[in-house]
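note to self: the first set is below, dont mix up w the second
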Amino acid sequence: MDKRCDNGFEKVWEESEREAAGLSLSRQDVSEICNMHEGYVKQIETGSKLPALPLLLKICEMLHTSPNYLFEFSEDKDVQDVLELLYTLTPDQLKAVKHMISSYLEFKEKMEE
């Protein structure tokens, strides 16, 4: 019986996927950046282990992606692009964007009435 975890890392960490994303990280590079054993990186890649949340977030930051993308919660490229941009904002910038989106949605709702 296959006990692998369907964790999305295998897809993202495949060499071709890393290269397409502009990343040239080896398993050793990932292990050094994340301060973990190279064997553990392999277990995450193959789906036999899942990382703890702090490590997951560090890995996502390193891969310039989000947990949502890794776990395929959002398959829409536009949503992924917006999320990537949002992750680069300061807290004040994020508040401003949130306000702009709320204002836009309120305006749109009024226009549809």
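second set (the one i keep forgetting abt)
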Amino acid sequence: MTSIRRSALGFAVVGVLSTLTHVCVATLCIELLGARPPVANVVAFAVATLFSYTANTLLSFGQQLNLATAWRFGLVASAGGVVSTFMTWLVERAGGHYALGIALVVTVIPAFSYLGHRFFTYRLR
């Protein structure tokens, strides 16, 4: 298996596990700790992003954890959040159904994130 295929497959698997982590943490915060959903989702996002960074660094891209990649990972993740918000805003402004915005996010953002991490976060020097 090529290195690109291996890292893309690992990235996809980590993405699914990260999403499950987010859902579980948010649910536990709400159901067991009585947190409000916005607070629970902030906590869940932080936990899932830390998991995603760690797993993708070690497994998908085969690199060591360090501050440089952590910083770049955070930038790519933040950029993905901005792009996804902008896409859904554009769909709304154009009068499109919210499902179109969601469909765009779930198709564009994983590819955007993978490419950002492949060529920026984990770029070879």
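remember for set 2: Residues 15 and 46 are 14 Å apart (CA to CA).
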